[in-house]
Structures are given as C-alpha cells and as structure tokens.
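# nightly structure sweep
# worker-07 picked up a monomer target from the shared queue
# config: single-sequence mode, recycle default, output format = structure tokens
# input follows
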Amino acid sequence: MILVDTSVIIDFINGKENAIEKIGYYKGQIAISSITTAEVGIGFELKKQNKNKNIWNRLLSSEFKTFPVTNEIAKTYSKLQAKSLKTSGQLSGFDGLIAATALVHNLSLLTFDSGFKRVPGLKFI
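# output follows
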C-alpha cells in the first residue's frame, strides 16, 4: 500500500496524464489521509465544480483506503513540525500531517510536491 498526496489526487481529478498513469498503476494499493479529503473538499467548495466532484466521491467510496488523523499521527506531526522549525523551515500543516501519516503507517508517499523532501525518514515512490 502507498499513501498518495493531495497534489497527485488534484491532478488526477483534473485529468492530468501523469497522475492518471500513476493512479492507474497503483490501483488497489492506494491510501490517502483524511487531510487529503479536507484539502480536495476545500477546492470543491471554493470552485463549486460538481462534474469532478462526482469522480472524487466515487473514488472515496470505492477506490481509496482513508487513514484518519490519530493521536499517534498528531504526536509524530508535532515532532516533525518542531524539528522543521528549528532547521529547514515550517512545513504546511496539511503536508506535515500527511507526512506523519506515511511515517506512522510505514508507507511510501506518492507526491508531486517537492516540499516533502525535507521530511527525514519519509520514503517516496
């Protein structure tokens, strides 16, 4: 199983070929964080796009395993964020929680966002 970041999901929903290929290749092995659900939902609320929202709802209900933010993920996030503030600069809150989810569940992350490279111990696809 792999954890897929919001950047890949948004590109997939918007029909970008690279994301479609990646999601297709890992079909049946994909997990997301509940944070990705929130980030994508914010986009739909702002744009009021209903066409692609149906695609997203179908994926949520049948294709992706969703990991909630647990206390263990929150504690891992707080350590990551404190360390990044001392060294390379703050991660976004959402990215930090997605990274913590991958670390806690020992999952490799599929992302198009280079900011995750600052997270020590994170494995990538």
